[in-house]
């Protein structure tokens, strides 16, 4: 399949637009408090950014995005977004630095003096960081603030599958008590903590010599497998990939974000955004894998994606501009033995990974959350963004002007009323000597860059 598509790229296939969704790099363990990107993690993410720079921004590449300004950052051509959480923001920044490395810039002034940039030519791509209380937060973290999604945890813990595995793995988990005590209560050293235990020992095997000696590779593989099973059960265990389904809600919101960015206008040479880079967490990967039936192509999609993993969507034209296709690719980490590999979506079996755009859009639209209102209903969420949408506005309708529709008159009346109030308030403030100041962000927002992972149970 790869060789055939490689030939197509040289015979007229043209990449028009690309979307990359990435997981963060290596980090400190979650159970020790606020997580941070490690030096190893920065190297992983930087390597990923370099990889995609070579693939999509190098004019000599057969996958070069048509019409993009190459390695020179142009704001209107690239869109990057991440949840406002320290680990994901750090990863996004490193990725963008690799994607658009420094360019030497020297300017000559009118008097002939040459001036060089003090930052060595850094390009500073814009990163849109989305606060957790923003209506747009759902598109990259659709499971946060979703009570019905959280119920999947309770359902799994009450299932016979969980009970059986908890019993059969009890002695295995207890064999690590010596390196887990003090960090996990005795009643939490077991399958009930499959992911947190795997996460801690996985990080420890890299950085802690005692744990590295204590936990064998075989032990770590089994811990990983057990963690895979719990996270799949709570984020992706669906019988049919249709919506709405609270278990896979984060995959459904991501699907809408993908459709929004990878849309028909991007198929033209005059399109604006040609490259989109989004960051999120492993649970969103799993949910999306389930919704698009990817495990039917490879059992590896049942497992947790490793650090710095990426899924990619290429919008391509072949053989002419009027024939648009979408190709899905997955890269599990950044190691040389983990190549960027294409897979057919939605159980298309042995068919080409190139999917006609209309078919792709139709299939994605079926699994995607339509809007914030639908998300609020599916999740039965009481988040502020959901409460605000239902908040009534108590405004007395104005008298209907002859020939004017009542609803329009009411709207104008509301505007006039608000304008009058504004004039009165402004006058009072001038008289009393007050002045307007920018309202400070809430405390939890202001410290989000340092304590987001600590204050919120973030799956990353």
From TrEMBL:
SUPFAM superfamilies attached to this UniProt entry: Phosphoglycerate mutase-like
Keyword tags: Membrane, Transmembrane, Transmembrane helix
Top-rank lineage group of the source organism: Eukaryota
Transmembrane segments: 408-432
Iron listed as a keyword: no
InterPro entries in alphabetical order: His_Pase_clade-2, His_PPase_superfam, Histidine_acid_phosphatase
Gene3D superfamilies associated with the record: Phosphoglycerate mutase-like
One MF annotation (Gene Ontology) recorded for this entry: phosphatase activity
UniProt family annotation: Belongs to the histidine acid phosphatase family.
The name this protein goes by in its record: 3-phytase
Organism expressing this protein natively: Tuber aestivum (summer truffle)
């Amino acid at each position: 399949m790869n060789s055939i598509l490689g030939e197509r790229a040289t015979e007229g296939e043209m990449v028009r637009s690309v979307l990359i969704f990435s997981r963060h790099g290596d980090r400190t363990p979650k159970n020790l408090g606020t997580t941070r990107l490690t030096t190893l993690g920065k190297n992983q993410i930087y390597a990923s950014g370099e990889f995609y720079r070579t693939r999509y921004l190098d004019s000599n590449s057969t996958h070069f995005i048509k019409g993009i300004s190459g390695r020179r950052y142009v704001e209107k051509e690239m869109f990057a977004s991440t949840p406002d959480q320290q680990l994901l923001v750090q990863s996004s920044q490193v990725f963008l630095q690799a994607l658009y490395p420094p360019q030497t810039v020297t300017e000559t002034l009118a008097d002939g003096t040459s001036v060089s940039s003090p930052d060595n030519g850094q390009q500073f791509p814009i990163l849109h960081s989305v606060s957790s209380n923003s209506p747009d937060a759902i598109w990259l973290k659709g499971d946060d603030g979703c009570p019905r999604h959280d119920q999947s945890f309770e359902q799994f813990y009450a299932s016979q599958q969980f009970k059986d595995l908890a019993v059969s793995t009890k002695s295995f988990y207890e064999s690590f008590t010596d390196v887990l005590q003090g960090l996990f209560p005795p009643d939490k050293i077991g399958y009930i903590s499959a992911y947190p235990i795997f996460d801690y020992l996985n990080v420890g095997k890299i950085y802690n010599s005692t744990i590295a000696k204590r936990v064998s590779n075989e032990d770590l593989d089994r811990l990983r497998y057990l963690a895979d099973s719990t996270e799949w059960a709570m984020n992706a265990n669906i019988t049919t990939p249709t919506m709405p389904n609270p278990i896979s809600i984060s995959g459904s919101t991501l699907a809408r974000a993908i459709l929004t960015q990878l849309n028909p206008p991007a198929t033209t040479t005059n399109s604006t955004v040609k490259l989109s880079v989004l960051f999120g967490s492993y649970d969103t990967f799993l949910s999306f894998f389930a919704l698009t039936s990817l495990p039917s192509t490879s059992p590896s999609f049942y497992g947790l994606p490793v650090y710095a993993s990426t899924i990619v969507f290429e919008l391509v034209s072949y053989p002419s501009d009027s024939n648009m296709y979408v190709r899905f690719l997955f890269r599990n980490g950044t190691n040389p033995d983990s190549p960027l590999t294409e897979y057919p979506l939605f159980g298309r079996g042995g068919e080409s990974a190139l999917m006609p755009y209309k078919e792709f859009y139709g299939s994605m639209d079926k699994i995607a959350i339509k809007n914030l209102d639908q998300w609020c209903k599916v999740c039965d969420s009481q988040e502020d963004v959901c409460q605000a949408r239902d908040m009534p506005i108590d405004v007395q309708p104005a008298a209907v002007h002859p020939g004017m529709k009542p609803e329009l008159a009411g709207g104008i009346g509301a505007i006039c009323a608000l304008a009058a109030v504004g004039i009165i308030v402004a006058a009072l403030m001038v008289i009393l000597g007050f002045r307007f100041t920018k309202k400070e962000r809430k405390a939890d927002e202001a410290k989000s860059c340092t304590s987001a992972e600590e204050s919120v149970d973030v799956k990353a």
